[in-house]
Amino acid sequence: MSLDSMLPVAPARVRALVLPIGQIKRDRFSSFVQRLNEEHVVHLRDITPDGRPNRNMFSPLAFPGGAMFYDLITYVPPPSHLALAPFELFREPLALIAIADGQELENVAFSKRQSANGHAPTLAERNIRILDQELEELRDTYPKILTHQVLIFDYAPHTEHTIPMPDGIATIPPVENSKRTTIKTIMCDISSLLLAEMTTLAKSFEGMTAIDSPGQAPARPGLNGSSWTSDDANSAARRNSQYAVSTVTRSASTSGAPDRTQARMSMPVPFKSLPFGSSSSTPSARPTTPVRSGLSNPPATFDDIVSANGSSIDVTSSEPSRPGSAGGVKSTNKDKVSVQGFGPGGLNERWRNKGRGRVIILVGSLYLQAGRWTDALKELIEGATVAKSMNDHLWHGKALELIIIALLLLGWAGVEFQVPTICLPTNDKAISSISKGPEFEEGDPDQPKHLRHLQNILPELLERIVGLYSRISGEQLPPLPLSQSIIRFCNLLAGIHLCEGKLDKESLERIVLGKLPTKALTSSPRLTIPPSRTQIATLLFKAFPSSAPELLTTVDRAIILSGIASVLGSLGFHRKKAMVVRELVSVLIGGLVEARTRGAAEVGIHPAAGLVALNTVNGHGNGAGALELGEGDIEHGIDAFLGLLCKTYGVVRFDDAIRSPSDELRQVSDTDEKVIARIQSQSSARQFGIRNVKLNILRACINFSEALPDFNGVLRFSSDLLRTAGSGVAPGPRREDAAPIITRDEQLRLITNISKTAGLSQRLGLKHLSAEYWDEFLVRGVTLDPLPPARTPIPHPKIVLPGVTTARTSQDVNPFIYNPFIRAPDKAAVERTLVAGEAATFRVTLQNPYEIDVDIESIRLDADGADFESSVTSTIVGPYRTQILKLTGTPKAAGPLKITGAIVKVRGCRERRFPIFPQPWAPETQIKIKGIGLAALEQNQKLPFPGPPLNTDSIGLNVISAQPVVVIKSTSLFQSSVMILEGERQVFSVTLQNLSSTTPADLLLFSFQDSTQGPLQTALASRDATPAELYEYELILARKQALKLRKIDDSKRYIAPGSTATFEFEILGKPGLTNGTIQVDYAHLGVPQAEISEEFHTRQVCLDLTITVNASVELARMDVLPIQGEVPKPIWTRLGADSVEEEPSLSDEKHCLLLLDLRNAWPSDMQVCLKAEDGIMIQEHILPGNTNRIIFPVPRVYIDDPHASIPALDPSRQRQFVVSSSKITPEIERGNREAFWYREKVLEKLSGSWKTLSGPAREGSIELRGLRLAPRMIEAIKIDEVGIDVSVEDAETENSPREGNGNTIFTDEFAQIRVVITNRTHEPIYPTLRLMPSLCHRPLNVALDFTRKFAWNGTLQQTLPLIEAKSSTEVVMGVIPLCRGEFEVSASVEETQLWTTTTEKEKEGGKETVVRRERSDTEIMMDAVLGAKERRIWHSRRPCRVCVRDRE
User: Fold this and answer.
1) I want to staple 129 with a disulfide (CB 3.0 to 4.6 A). Which of 115, 149, 1176, 1444 is the partner?
2) Would you state the pLDDT for residue 250?
3) pLDDT score at 540
4) CA torsion sign, 216 to 219 to 223 to 224?
5) What angle do CA 1323, 1329, 1332 make, to 5 degrees?
6) Residues 6+ apart with CB under 8 A from 1356
7) Confidence tier at 765 by pLDDT (50, 70, 90)
8) Where are the alpha helices (DSSP H) in 672-735?
């Protein structure tokens, strides 16, 4: 059964007062009461009847099918409720159950006083005796309660020593040792005793001749019904048959004070044999009527006047009553028989009949509470008939109400009944409509006929009862019982309506036991289900209390309003319910303020002295003192009540679930999904209802919580008010208006209230009380600040490590091989990489759309994945702005890491997690669609959210293992700057230090950058550069690096933790070098390079150098000259080439003269040294600013293929054939290639160096790559593919040729001209030799006229046989000079035909033809570049001069 006091069958329940006794804790007391509540329905068939013959009036044997319903209360009913007895007898407790904790019996003494029965051997027995004494005190304190019982829960007696239990004390074993019927047996025993004692109470009622109605002037003015308990020490009389029999009287007065007029008659005889030394004193009279109002009617009869004056005293014989019963001796002034107007129809007779009818109704009410429903129905029918005949409308209505309850209980028990005639309407029209209703309407055939009949008359009968209660006469029902009766009637009708308008088993279960409906009603109309909701609501609002404060107390007004709200809620009228609850809050606020003021006045403090002052005095810790509520009442009742009110109006709350503030371990989920769902739910709530009404409701809730005072309510509703007033959007730049709709002053007042209340809760030890922050979009972004360049970990694949691939076998990086350490790293990858154990800086963007400062006590980052430790800081976010806050975080272990939000503690609010919402967001304003009630809001929340998607953000990071931190400790250069001359090389050292104390640097890679690399790379990327220029750029880039590491062992590339290492570097001075950078990539691998996984990370430390390069020795001009004749011997000696022995005739064929103009641009004397092949070396001293010309012979050069393609040093350009990008003719292309190759050959054989002779000692090399060869120079340098040597011999001495200048022959004598043809190529040639004699020192036309001056044997032009590669042949021709003079014989060789790939070779035994492959595409392309291959011609370098003279 529900504990609802507004149940329709509430008058049939027996109220039992449950109190704690002895040493017991609150939570255990509540659990024990809960165990009793589980058995609050006691069936009569289970109750053992009392064996005494004078106690069997309410014997359970008379109706075993009945049941007693207990209403267990833990508080003393207020006087305004007790004053309604005996009209509403169910309001008085008839039983008292004191609960003790059996576990505390052996722990501590319950009292320090000595037991009345002497010394107890054990502490448990002593405590049991103390409990017995306290039970006696309870009997004295509550003398009007029929039975008193002490229950010791969780009692486990010792087997060796059994403690005897006094009468009135029962023990209950722990739950694990209890049976299913243990509690049930206890309740049955209490019920048996209570039924026996109810006999005495009924007899006392039957002995009365007059019973006052509520609101009627009492017969004893000046007395009130507030003295329900006995606080007088002399009032020891009680109603309890377990002890001495006494003649305790039952007074009909409204006060517990002794009546002077009946002092002698009601004084019991003192018994000396009372247990525990108790003594009897003046009994306490039992009040039977409530306090008369000051507006009550004057006495209507003479008896009333006599009673009011107290002058009529009539002594009647009193029958002995059960000791401790409600009344033993009847009141003198009430039980008298007046002689005025004696006889039928007189006033006295009418007064007696009215009293008799009321007594019958009271006895019927007792039968109803005792479970004897059939007997109650019989008594109530008789009492209703008498009350109707006497026009006693209040008691007539009460009888009809109790008859309905009896019929409902009989129907619930399955007993068939007949509706009494007294319940049927009196007019014929109503009877005919009722008779036609259920019989001729289509109904449920399973519904019993008697229930259908009762259902049909119920609406009219209840209206008639309300009319009887509301009739204005000399007796008027007070507002409290009237309103509660109407609420009970509406609960009855609502129970039928919720069960589809049928009074059946299901509806009876709800009506009798208060079972909640399985489904809640919606706002849809239910017009076809009787009784309709509109009719029920119309009847219900008749119970609405008036605004007059003197008619109802605050508590009674709150009870009535809460009952109305409960019925409206069950009917689905949530908006009507919200209005009633709003009125209830207003009533409670006024009552709380008044109670607080009164309490402050009692303790002598000012009412505004603080929230805690009153509670501290009253001993309450959470604001329960103002209404004298229990500690759990606020937590489990008021919080849910106010939460329901706010939900009805659509207040934007933090969460839909009502959470208990007393649970210190409460966990609120702040995951991304929950927060998004919360934002969407709050957005839906913002679009529901009227915002100003919501704000007013929240202000009322705040005032209510402050009046209690309820700290949790103040915090909760203040934050809800800020949340409801806010926009609930994530504003973007200049887009949404996110300002709240309340003023800044109110915002400031609310946040101050939150801060003060939370601080006060902390000081009181209520650390779990806190508000919920009102803006879910607090964190708008989290970004990671880039790490310092020296600490940034850069990812690299495994293949870039030296030694992993064949392309990188050394840590000295080839500039043409891709160097991943020089390139700019992937910014995204670098920005999301952290190092374990090293702090990183994060920027957290916070928003505050309110016009007040937000004081953040602590904020830290929230991360998933690897272990992460965030710094904690505090800040104040200014009004209406976004603010950036810096936080540091340190990952503790390697692995993936994700920053998902921030954990923020705002002053006065709960510390919670906030996700990251970087994007602006605002809900879409939906088209206004008519929606009735909360169902519209609930339906919208069930549907998918219609607004834009709401996504959270996170920062994915990768944490790598601990890495060293290497810095440049020192360098041998002063301020990292150096001055150097062109061609000079200097060595300097750099010392690196490992700052890490635990991690070594086992991987060190050095890379270099300088100011010359950029222009070179730009020139290399130019599409207009010629191959020779590209080769020059690549050569400078690859072989003339400005910075490089001197060769060291790879094992020395290691820096231990906390130690240093020194490395030496070499710098080369070259033009354009202004700055350079030494980049050191280092890492801790921890494993051999071959065992590294897919990726590793390095850090960089750079040393920037400032370099100044000055000019030293410059090449100003150069030339190449052929040598005409022999090189003098002194020249060779001067050049240091004494060992060179040249044949005089061939000396000019192997050397040429190289002319160099060298300028000293440095302000110091320079000594220049040039070296060539064959030990040729020349030294020259050059003064500052002077230019010296140096001439020395150099060997001539032969190149097999001077037209070969120009190579590329860059591997990416090393292809089989490269077509020139410039559009030039084949002749120019051949000339360019020829110049390139001859220049390279000259530079290979030539080198130069310089050193200073004054000032600081410096030395370096001369840059000779500035040499540029013109075609004339090439002709002087190169050696032709075919060599032609012409000489003249005498015929007699043919084996002794003469030198060219010494060839002397005689006229008219035979001589021989010998021509030696040498093929220096790799291919055979078909030569044709042409000899051309001529006269010296003559013009060309005359010089060739030699036919009559020079004769020869044969022809001057002849075809020679094939000359194989690398071979030579000789041709000898006989000549005769015919005259004196000087002749010149020159020769030329021309290819007769080109050498082809097909030749014929003769072998022994036959001929074999060898066929070679056809020309390839490469040759075709080369022909396109260099032109088609043609027949070549070679000329002798100088003619052979012949001197002819006459023989003497």
Assistant:
1) 115
2) 33
3) 94
4) negative
5) 145
6) 1330, 1331, 1332, 1333
7) confident
8) 672-686, 691-707, 711-725
Beta-carbon contacts of residue 669 (< 8 Å; ≥ 6 apart): none
Mean pLDDT of the chain: 79
Q: Which of 661, 612, 657 is closest to 635 using CA atoms?
A: 661
More confident residue, 104 or 283: 104
Q: Which of 194, 255, 235 is nearest to 42 (CA)?
A: 194
| Cα–Cα nearest to 759, from 612, 624, 592 | 612
pTM of the full predicted structure? 0.63
pLDDT, tens digit, 9 for 90 and up, residues 1013-1025: 889 888 888 888 8
The CA distance from 1161 to 1115, in Å, is: 10
Query: Which range has the worst mean pLDDT, 209-213, 914-918, 931-935, 1209-1213?
Result: 931-935
Beta carbons of 1262 and 1168 less than 8 angstroms apart = yes
CA-nearest of 1193, 1039, 1081 to 1128 is 1193
Identify the three-state secondary structure at position 1044. strand
Round to whole Å and give the CA distance between 980 and 989: 16
The overall longest dimension of the chain from CA atoms, in Å, is 214
Number of H helices, E strands in the chain: 33, 44
Listed in sequence order, the residues at least 6 apart from 484 whose beta carbon sits closer than 8 Å to its beta carbon are: 5, 6, 543, 559, 560, 563
CA–CA dist 583, 123 (Å, integer): 54
- Quick one: pLDDT band at residue 555, thresholds 50, 70, 90? confident
3-class state of residue 1009 by DSSP: strand
Query: What pLDDT score does 398 carry?
Result: 94
Number of neighbouring beta carbons within 10 Å of residue 1079: 17
Two structure tokens written together for 743: 């003023």
- The model's pLDDT over 1401-1425, given as tens digits with 9 standing for 90+, comes to 444 444 444 444 554 555 555 556 6
Q: Which residues are CB-neighbours of 1095 under 8 A, at least 6 positions away? A: 795, 796, 797, 798
Residues 48-104: pLDDT tens digits? 998 888 888 999 999 999 999 999 999 999 888 898 989 999 999 999 999 999 988
- pLDDT category, 1085, cuts 50, 70, 90? confident
* Sheet with 779-784: strands ordered across: 779-784, 840-848, 881-891, 868-870
Single-letter code of the amino acid located at 791 = R
709 preceded by a cis bond (ω within 30 of 0): yes
CA 684 remoteness from chain centre: 22
| Amino acid letter, 145 | I
The strand pairing partners of 1283, in sequence order, are 1318
Please identify which residue in the block is written with the tokens 């005259």. Answer: 1379
| Burial (CB count within 10 angstroms: exposed 0-12, middle 13-18, buried 19+), residue 230 | buried
pLDDT at 940: 63
d(CA 922, CA 731) in angstroms, rounded, equals 7
Q: Are 718 and 706 in contact (CB under 8 A)?
A: no
Q: For 416, how many CA atoms within 13 A lie in the half-sphere containing its CB?
A: 4
CA separation, residue 480 to residues 84, 486, 558 (Å): 9, 10, 11
Distance CA 635, CA 622 (A): 9
